[in-house]
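Review box. Two proteins, two foldings.
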Amino acid sequence: MRKFTCLLIVFLSGFFGAYAQSFSVSGLVSDENNMPLLGVNVIVKGESRGTTTDFDGNYTIENVSPGDILQFSYVGFEAQEITVNDQRTINVVLQTDSEALEEVVVIGYGTQQRKDVTGAVSVVDNQTLDELQPIKVEQALQGTAAGVNVTPQSGAPGADININIRGIASNSVNGPLVLIDGYQGDLNTLNPNDIQSISILKDAQAAIYGVAGANGVVLVTTKTGKKNTAPKVTYQTYYGIQEASREIPVLNATEYALLLNESYANGGQQIPYPNVSGLGEGTDFQSAVFKQAPISNHNLSLTGGGERVTYSVGGSNLDQEGIVGGDKSGFKRNTARVSLGVDINDYFDVQLNATYTNIARKSINENGLGSVLFNALNFAPTFGVNDQDLAGRLGNEIINPLSQIENTYNDYNLDKLNGNFSLDFTPIEELVFTSRIGYNLSKSDSKTFNPEIGADVYGPGKVFNNPRSTVNQNRINDNSYTYDLFGTYEDRYNEDHHVTFTGGMTVIRQWGDGLYATGYDVPNNSYEFADISLTTGTNDGLNNSSYVYDIRKLSFFGRLQYDFKGKYLVSGMLRRDASTRFNPDNRVGYFPSATAGWIISEENWFDSDTFNFLKLRGSYGILGNDEAGGAEFYRSALTGEATYVLNGQLVNGTAPGRIANPDSGWEEAEKINIGLDLRLLQNKIDITADIFREERKDLLVAGIPVSGIFGGAAPGAGAPTINAGTTRNQGAEFAINYKENFSDDVRLNVSYNFTYLENEVTEVNGTDFLPGGAFGVGQPQPARMEEGFPIGYFYGYKTDGIFQNQSEVDAHPAQNALGAPAQPGDIRYVDINGDGVINTDDRTNIGDPIPDFTMGLNLNFTVKNFDFTAYTYASLGNEMVRNYERNQPNVNRHAYYLERWRGEGTSNEVPRLTTAATSNGVFSDFYVEDASYVRIQNAQIGYSLPADFLDRVGIDKLRVYVAGNNLYTFTDYKGFDPSASTGEAIGGGIDYGFYPVPRTYMFGVNLNF
């Protein structure tokens, strides 16, 4: 009996022991806001066994034993490990990984985990914005997102910034569609501190926004509060000093006089400066114009949330003065923002966002012939700071730049209210309906006062002389709303099939009006009285003008996303758009696209300790564009001018403006993309690579010549807009990020990206080419859009050094047709067509303003409480036209003329100086320079006070930092700023004396409590 009892005890012990070592564990996985998480990976550490959470965040895992470690991992959240004892239920709350917020990607009418994204998407998060502290949002995209090229139109406060995604495809509008929390908005009016993340859709993924997605889409998500969090106050401020990042070396007074004497002597004229010994350095008008200028920024916000309510409110103030113009140049931006989310009940959620922006800007003449910097470069250094060219020696376009600033009065003010209101209805867990309306309401006014200026101020014959004082004023109203109504159904079947369907409609209306007027004879010739209501004079011409527009669009869209076992991903989209810009017969466009992905690392046969994630993806789609300027293309508005004979009297009136074209239709962009996403070494290395191609067809082109019988040359009129061109952009992108936490105190993050781009115009209909830009005075337009060449390429003469002697001149084809017979010391031009004479037929491609490569290299390094960041950017392979030098005998010159030709063998690059006629001033590659550059955009050192100290004073975070923006630019370009562009597709790379982006030194404080 004893033996039996012992055996029974041993048997039962083994039985219950076996039972105790093998049981199932279940539970709920949620985020810090108690929201269940779908698709969380739950595995037994060291084994391949595991499962994923269902739609409600629930999981069950079988055959778990005490001592096993369960790993919970989800993209965008910090992984957790929990050791199992004898518990059968384990609920887990995953914490958001602040360094992986970019893993959740906004893709249009929804979000997607980055691992499931099948399109080409770049993300810039709020951490990057905090580190760069950009004045404008657009600046944060340069060098941080592959395929995105950002160029400033000017470094002046408040100046516009161009964004091009994967090249320039259209001859008209190339900027992307910008959506802020779902509504069409403007980055220029946003406070960067209000932004949570920016997603950039670059390929067919943007087809969900078919109506205007051809140029890419920028999706901005602003900050909101979080549920069940205490109120959090954030204050950010910085103060900085700006200075000119570069000055162009020009001749001082002695050098100027010596070279001018040489020029006069070579021209057979009496030298103007017989004695140069007392001239010295003279006046440096660049230094006189450039001043150090302050910039300051303050941002205050309050965020938090309860069980059903989240909130975020804030305000900001930015005050930036210009480095040129003193109190005549500046930019002030004030914003106030509120974001409120309310869960009304289990079925209805409400979200409200509203932003008010006020902008006040003063500006000077920034770029172009006659700008302040143009005059600073060309005004002779022998003049004193307050001297004027009263003898008219410098020609009629050059005046004292300081006097020009003194007599400049330009004011601009903008008030804008924008935001959205959305209502989500969730009848069942798998289905959400969203009704959302976004709005933009803006009013602006500007005033320009031109005082009466006689010849005794600037000098006789100057184009700046003004016989009558005038004031130009305008008031503009621009409004829009976007209404979206769509539903999203998401469900998982048999744990293997994950389906998401999104379908709905969008209504867009853009409307507004503008009024322009001029008043003459301002009382007291003073800005204080510069208002049209006070002017006393009249004018025989048209003194006012106005416009009105109303554009409407209606769209229907659908998208189906499917993945099988989380490794085979497909998505199909179709959008139907209608735009009132086109004739009713051509109004509707259909824009389909498809994307697919294969997560190779999810395959059972994929087993690698090195490769943690590997995905192959591709996309194809057709996207549309109707943004080519003008409200309507198919009919004319009465915006032209005409003179009529009524009752025997001449009467000024209106006439049709731009010629109508009822046959105009949509631009279409056919986009193809193949990409690879790869993560290595425990996700420390993240790689993304893409190759892409875009064919832009049926370009909406304005300016194709038409017969004069149609009246296209009449005042206020113009050629019709027609579908008349095709372009191609193709290239590759690569981005790599390395992140290493050496310890809790030492962390490193390095990222690098580059983009390679080829651009070509493949077709232009109705004409051989479209010209653009300007060079010098009276010369043909130097840029072209022409089949077989990059859009906006430079068309001129190719050079082959300098003639060294008369025998070289005699042996070379004659250059008389260019303006004068060649002599030793003149530029030698290439006979392109080999006909033995140099003339207009020898012009050719001499440069391309579009860079071949753009790159970004960014570093973030943290040691205990100290942090260091550096952002650099490079643009390689682009050329720029040097057009800031006036071709007049007495103006100042660039210092490279110190290396001019003075006799045989002295120079083979810079021509001789002479007052006699030469052909050296025609547009050639002598004026086209390599504008490649590498720029240190930002470097910052910060220190965060220790947490134990801050806890005692009730502060969550206090960080102080010093930073430098636009610290240095490495380039061979001779001008002020190789990064600038006017933004024009044809002629954008011509430098008329670009106002340089300033170098800024800042001290800042970030405070959270």
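Next protein.
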Amino acid sequence: MKKSKQRPIIRYEANFSRSVLFVIMGLFLSLGAFAQKITVKGQIKDATNESIIGASVVEKGTTNGTVTDFDGKFSLSVSPNAKLTITYIGFKSQEVEVKGTSPINIVLEENDKLLDEVVVIGYGSVKRKDVTTSVASVSTKDLDERPIISAAAAIQGKAAGVNVIQPNGEPGAGIVVRVRGNSSINASNDPLYVVDGIPMTDINFLSPNDIESMQILKDASSAAIYGSRASNGVVLITTKSGMKGEAKISLSAQAGTTQIGKKIHSLNVSQYKDLMDEIGMINLPSGLKDETNWFDETFRTGVSQNYQLSVSNGNDKMRYFISGGYTKESGIIKVAYYERYNLRANLENQIRPWLKVNTNLAYSDYSNNGIISGQGANRAGVVLSVINTPTYALIWDPNHPGQYYNNFYGANVTHPVENMSRTADNKTNNNRLLGSASGEITFTPNLKYKSSISIDRAYYNGTSFLDPVKTEYGRSQYGNASDNRALSTILVFDNIVTFDKSIKKHNFGLMAGASGTTSKWSQSYQTVSHFISGDIKTLNAGNKVEQWNGTSASDWAIMSYVGRLSYNFDSRYLLTANFRADGSSKLAPSHKWGYFPSVSAAWRLSSENFMRDIKWIDDLKIRGGWGQTGNQSGVGDYGYLQLMNITRQNWWETGKDNALPIITPANMQNKDLTWETTTQTNIGIDFTVLSNRLTFTADAYYKHTTNLLMDVPLGPTAAFSHIYRNEGEMENKGLEFGVNSKNFIGQFKWSTDFNISFNKNKVMKFDTRQSYFYEQSTSGEYITKLTIGKPLGMFWGYISEGVDPETGDLVYKDLDKSGTITPADKTYIGNPNPDFTFGITNNLSYKGFNLDIFFQGSVGNDVYNLSRMETEGMYDSKNQSTAVLKRWRIPGQITDMPRAVSSKENLKNSSRFVEDGSYLRLKALTFSYNFSGKLLKKWSINRLQPFFTAQNLLTFTNYKGFDPEVNQEGGSALVQGIDWGTYPQTKSYVFGVNVEF
């Protein structure tokens, strides 16, 4: 009994002793494991012995990491015998073994070739060394140091074959981007933008500070994967994401001023009276004196500010990037402004080894107000009225309080302050929401499937208010207000499968998928007039509601199938083939499907045995490609159908109490409407020599566009005035060159990027008519003529041979030798298309000092200075510029300024108003300094960089107007290089600071 009772006690004691032993051993093991952690310190430099700031140092196989400080130093607790992985952009990654606590000094090797850099292409990516097409990468490293509002401005002068102009200086004005010239007439010539996989045509919502990379697909063999929307090139934009390591907080703050780049002087009262006495149209009383400087009353020093804050972090499982910003610019003309708020969140999570999800969300709220331009001083044109308004005038009418002065003794003019007030209460507001979500399943390391859905929702609200008292026009309308609203929602659903396989030196890639796009759009529009006063500016304060108020809506859809096959042998022989099929609801059912193939190939000669002994050549690759892309962006949502006009009847008229609207056909149906197609051939060469110190690229291309989409006028006897149809052919051909050189690579670094582009455009064929005329001038004559065998936008008129010394009249060339000047003597007098454009950037740095100098220019383009018809025409009672002081007055006088006469004889469209628009511009000059020191390290500040930037600092040109980079018609391909009282370009001076901790 006793023994039996003691056994469990012994067993219990033994178990207890064993448990205690295990606990003690576990504690020792835990303490031992804790004790195993060691702190390793080190410093990271480059080959020139300069410290590398912000390099990532991560314990291999873990999420444990840090970044280097201003001295390139780091400190990290790791396990004994751990391996550290060091990475930094532009340098080769390196692994280092930890040996005790000894300091580690690491020298990173610069990755000059960057051949292993990943380049984003359509629905995928590829190593730069394996690119077979013409793809341009735009540097984004200096975007946080430049005062640019539009992300498209970051491209200007940075990529060969891409011409970027800012047609006017209005805050928030759109940027015109042309990839290898204009390929269409009435359809859009804007490139397709793809932001984080979302296709769109406008990127004004996007903050440049959020951009990680920009790639431009220039030739059809690269862009054809986007098929029907890619005939004008594709700009691929990837926004920033979190990186593995410590969390980063980045702040970019800048503030500055903007000024008009040039001043054009007008006549004073005495000079103006002399001119009026010569013309004889009005009689000015004696004793008038200069009262108002209209230039000072219109123009001001604008103020710009931009603040962007971001937080990012990441590990092996999850990465995030969150940013927000505020931008505002008050224009150099007093009522103009632009304001934007932007938010972004990019998240990526590796949920399982086989499943990765990603979501991007961006919201932007931006608004602006502008002026009336492209009009004379008698039609509220602000810029021209600055010069056309006599200086004796006051701002306010002393005899009519609250009204602007308008006693001009018979002169048909309104002063610029009154003209500005016409739009002072106008506002355009846009809300843009972009969101995307994707899931990627990895079935095997070679086989992946990605499904994504995105939404692009844009809300537009434009309001206006015309005061019923202040302005003469407002009084004639009893005041006027409008409210226009539009909502657009575009959904894109993509499903893509990729398969990659390598067998020894053979590398295969396959991509296939489907993409569906749907769009819904609606709008409402209201106008009300007859206000008592300007105190209440809402629509309900008006008494008369316009009859044409209403709503409208439309939708469209595209279904697409895509595929790509790529093969390369040892990265030496490379081949890529793309195919896309698009079906559009905008086109006729029997023609709605378009098929867009492309193929490209490359041969890396430098990898051949016969070139291995040529040591000074680092890389040499020859490329060639062919492909087709489409365009239907100029087609209305129901382009092939017959639309109807709805005309309301005045129900208040007698007998129309219950009248119904009248519905009539609006256009001619076109059952043959189909795709505009561009076929492009490209050959190119990539060449790197002298240990990667010099890189050279060259491309030659030929683009042939068929089935041009055009709005064709019909004859006077036709039932309709026009028809939208496929009409004619056009070509673009050109050369592009790019050079990157590292001139010095020691402590003092100097690198140069240069690109130059040549493009020739020509209309090849029209099916209906031989020529078309566009844009009328002050004289009522057409300015541009479109015809077979000539480029787009050619200026049309008479050749001016100067001023007759005896009569003071202009002499026009009698081309047909008839003895009199008739319309038969008109000819082509100018070409707005440049012979070539170029950009050159020099980056210099020494220790912490950095200097970037960016020049950009255009050569050979003409500008039609239509403003001079108003400021030098001397045909009516408007004030003129001081240029007319050189006018002809007496027989025998030699001058190039004709006499003053109350007729438009000297205002014929002629070469007198065509000027050379070539220019060289110091686009940006940026000076910055990277601070370092123990205090910053103590405060955990990784980057402190104050900077100063001057934008448009110097412009070298012979153009007489405000600025040669101008087009009153914005991005029109038919009417280019027209300056008609256009909002002037500005120069800006900005101070800022970039901080990261």
